């Protein structure tokens, strides 16, 4: 398939697909006329790459773990190195901190909107935990 079809099927702009190629994340075949030809399996690969990028992984780490991705949503390391495990643990910690920050910001915005609208404050994970502790006391 051509780059336009891969773009359409994955929702990824052609320019970004070319960037993935530059970074070594995908490798299309080249036709005799020089056009890129994308294999069907690259649809899943591009979606995996996008998911990993959305999760906050940088392309240099994605490039390292892509060979271990054998199908969508599955990561398998037959022989992980200590360096790879340490890198992934650091990324997991970073994502957890990011999720916590996003949750705090979400809760603050929800509380602000509730105040402005005159609604009851929304139940948040943190607020629910505080209410539960207060009821147990």
Overview features:
single chain; 137 residues; mainly alpha; Multidrug-efflux Transporter Regulator, Chain: A, Domain 2; 2 domains; two-stranded antiparallel sheet; 6 helices; 63% helix
Topology of helices and strands:
Elements: H1 3-10, H2 14-22, E1 29-30, E2 36-37, H3 41-54, H4 59-65, H5 82-117, H6 125-136
Antiparallel strand pairs: 1-2
Estimate the helix proportion, in percent.
55-70%
Number of extended strands: 2
Question: In terms of per-residue confidence, which ranges show pLDDT below 50 for 5 or more consecutive residues?
Answer: none
Report the span from N to C terminus.
64 Å
Element string (H = helix, E = strand): HHEEHHHH
Shape: flat
Return the structural class. mainly alpha
**If strands are numbered along the chain, what order do they take across the biggest sheet?**
1-2
Keywords: DNA-binding
Protein name: MerR family transcriptional regulator
Domain HTH merR-type: 1-68
InterPro entries: DNA-bd_dom_put_sf (IPR009061), MerR-type_HTH_dom (IPR000551), MerR_fam (IPR047057)
What does this structure look like?
The chain is mainly α. The chain folds into 2 domains: 1-73, Multidrug-efflux Transporter Regulator, Chain: A, Domain 2 (Orthogonal Bundle); 80-137. Helix content is 63%, strand content 3%. It is built from 6 helices and 2 strands. It has helices spanning 3-10, 14-22, 41-54, 59-65, 82-117, 125-136; strands spanning 29-30, 36-37. Strands 1-2 form a two-stranded antiparallel ribbon. Strand 1 and strand 2 (36-37) form a beta hairpin. It starts with a helix and ends with a helix. 10% of the residues are buried. The mean pLDDT is 83.
